[in-house]
Design a protein that fits this description.
The protein is α+β, with helices and mostly antiparallel strands. A hairpin with a 4-residue loop joins strand 5 and strand 6.
Length: 187
Amino acid sequence: MAEFRRLAETEVHRGHIWRVVVADFEAPDGTRFERDVVRSPGAVAVVPVTFDNDGTAMVTLMRQYRATLDRELIEVPAGMRDVPGEPAEATGRRELVEEVGLEAAEMVLLTEMIPTPGMSDSVCAIYMATGCTRVERAVHGPEEQHSEVLELPLDKAVAMVVQGEITDAKSALGLLLAERRLYELSS
C-alpha cells in the first residue's frame, strides 16, 4: 500500500515555544500539497485526586484567563514541556506545584492525547496524581497570578464536563479517565 510522504518543511516563524512551518507532502497517488504545521514540544496535564474525610474523591482545578479565547476556563493543572530533556512526569509534578500548590506521592499516566492534529504535532500526556500534599504555589505569569484554585468533588467536575461547563479537551478527558480509573480500582 502506498503511503503519504513528508518531503520537506520550511520554518516561517519561531516563537518562544512554538515554531510554524510550511510542510510539503506527497499523497499516495503522487499529488503534492502543502500544510501549515505548528511544531510544539507538547504538554502535560495532571488530574490531582484527594479524598475528603468522608472518602469522597475530590479534584483540584483552576479557573484562569486564556488570552487566545479572551475568557476564563476551568482546567486541570497543566503546562508546556518547555524544559528540554525534562521527562513528562517531572513536568507534571512541577506544574502541579506551580499552579495549584500540590505535591503528588504517585503519578499514573492515564493517556496521551493529540489535541489539535489538524494544525499541530503537539502531544499532551495526562496523569492522575494521588497522595497529594499542600505546598506553596509558585505561579508564573499574569494568568496564573490571577487564577483561582478550585477544589470540588470529582463527580461534580465530571458533571460539569457533561453539561459543557468544562470544555477544555485535556481537562475533560483527564477528568473522565480519572473517574473511570478510580471506579476500576474500587471494583
